[in-house]
Design the sequence.
């Protein structure tokens, strides 16, 4: 494209001129894959749009799995904070990146988060605009819905893209005015093809072609090892790609079951096989048996009754029952395999045979830690990087984060924990901190109280004999609580 062509394209089509050595990269080929074994099987086409039409829209297991994770993601509230302790922030982020968070990990993570982040109480114009976006990123959707929708697109296509309508004038210049999720199935990167490949922009093809700068687009993706000169690795790999054959089989199983129910007709053929009945008379005898059956043995009142015939009869089965076809067994296996693409416990998909988790709470916890939190943390990290680079907040101490305290399944049994904490010979302040509760600024909370009438420890100590004091010192030394005893004197 020469300079004149670039200028015409930008004026006539509203397209920005491409930088040197840039091509429009198609993330996947446009042809389906075919395998022939005793006939032809057409697998789901290896296109991102096919994972939506043949996967999410056509398969109830795919739909249910995606919605389970999206609903879990949607409930976490977001807010803006100031970073006041970088080390605590790093430790907090490391803990919640684990796939199996214990109740103790959760409590520690919440304490570190409280030390690391201070909520914004007053907002200037720019931070106030960003705070508004974390409530309503555009006029059609809430921020929580936008985060969940983006994660759903990523689970299906391997990619999540969000476009920022960046203000180019005014007091909030360089800051997004609104944010929209983009249709990943119609997006292709514009990139430098030589090593290292870098994305320089994006192209959307939805019937009309539109181009966007790289600064406008937030891209979160799954890892894709399919590196080649055409740039396939720049787009994330959909989890449905390795699961496409299982989804194809499951779709075929459902179709086979529906066809069996709709077109099966008679389950078999009953016939007269009595030598006393001449061949020429068997048709009339069969009709007589049918009338007897219809008059005396039809209807729910005759369920389980034994029918009698005055003639010797024969029976031939035609077609297979659904049980004989074992469609239910195939469906159960497919449920587990498809849910496993995202790490979802299959019992949350009503799999009665899978008892890997002892309770629904454990399954819900696995759904949160293994499925929802990875999406939330990835979105948070990419969003904060974008804010500090391309979206107008470079050098501003502002940090967007979600609150995972809403996930009750991650928390400890507070009642059982308090039964233990309340009996410790430590200050009330320390007890509140152990329970991850807000601590009022009250010097009386520094006093150590003990069981009984909850009197100050110093009063108890002053009335103890030397022998009692020695024994208590030994016990406290073993527990590592000598400092609290000294503080109470």
Sequence:
């Amino acid at each position: 494209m020469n300079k004149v062509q670039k200028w015409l394209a930008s004026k006539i089509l509203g397209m920005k001129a491409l930088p040197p050595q840039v091509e429009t990269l198609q993330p996947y080929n446009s042809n389906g894959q075919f395998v022939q074994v005793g006939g032809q099987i057409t697998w789901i086409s290896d296109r991102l749009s096919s994972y939506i039409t043949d996967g999410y829209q056509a398969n109830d297991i795919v739909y249910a799995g995606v919605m389970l994770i999206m609903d879990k993601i949607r409930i976490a509230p977001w807010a803006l904070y100031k970073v006041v302790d970088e080390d605590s922030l790093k430790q907090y982020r490391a803990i919640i990146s684990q796939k199996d968070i214990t109740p103790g990990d959760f409590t520690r993570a919440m304490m570190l988060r409280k030390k690391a982040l201070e909520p914004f109480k007053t907002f200037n114009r720019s931070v106030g605009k960003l705070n508004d976006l974390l409530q309503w990123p555009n006029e059609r959707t809430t921020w929580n819905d936008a985060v969940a929708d983006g994660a759903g697109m990523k689970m299906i296509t391997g990619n999540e893209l969000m476009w920022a309508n960046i203000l180019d004038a005014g007091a909030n210049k360089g800051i997004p005015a609104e944010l929209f999720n983009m249709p990943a199935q119609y997006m292709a990167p514009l990139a430098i093809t030589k090593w290292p490949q870098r994305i320089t922009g994006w192209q959307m093809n939805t019937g009309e072609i539109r181009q966007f700068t790289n600064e406008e687009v937030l891209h979160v993706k799954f890892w894709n090892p399919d590196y080649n000169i055409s740039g396939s690795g720049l787009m994330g790999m959909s989890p449905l790609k390795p699961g496409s054959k299982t989804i194809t089989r499951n779709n075929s199983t459902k179709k086979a079951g529906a066809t069996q129910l709709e077109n099966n007709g008679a389950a078999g053929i009953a016939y007269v096989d009595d030598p006393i009945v001449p061949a020429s008379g068997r048709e009339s005898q069969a009709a007589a048996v049918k009338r007897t059956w219809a008059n005396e043995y039809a209807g729910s009142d005759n369920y389980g009754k034994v029918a009698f015939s005055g003639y010797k009869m024969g029976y031939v089965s035609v077609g297979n029952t659904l049980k004989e076809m074992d469609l239910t067994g195939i469906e159960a296996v497919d449920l587990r395999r498809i849910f496993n693409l995202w790490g979802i416990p299959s019992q949350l998909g009503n799999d009665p045979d899978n008892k890997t988790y002892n309770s629904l709470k454990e399954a819900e916890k696995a759904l949160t830690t293994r499925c929802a939190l990875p999406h939330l943390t990835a979105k948070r990290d990419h969003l904060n990087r974008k804010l500090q680079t391309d979206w107008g907040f470079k050098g501003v101490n502002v940090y967007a984060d979600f609150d995972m305290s809403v996930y009750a399944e991650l928390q400890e049994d507070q009642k059982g924990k308090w039964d233990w904490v309340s009996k410790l010979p430590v200050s009330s302040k320390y007890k509140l901190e152990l329970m991850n509760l807000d601590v009022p600024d009250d010097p009386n909370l520094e006093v150590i109280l003990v069981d009984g009438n909850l009197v100050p420890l110093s009063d108890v100590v002053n009335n103890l004999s030397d022998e009692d004091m020695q024994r208590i010192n030994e016990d406290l030394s073993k527990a590592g609580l000598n400092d609290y005893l000294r503080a109470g004197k």
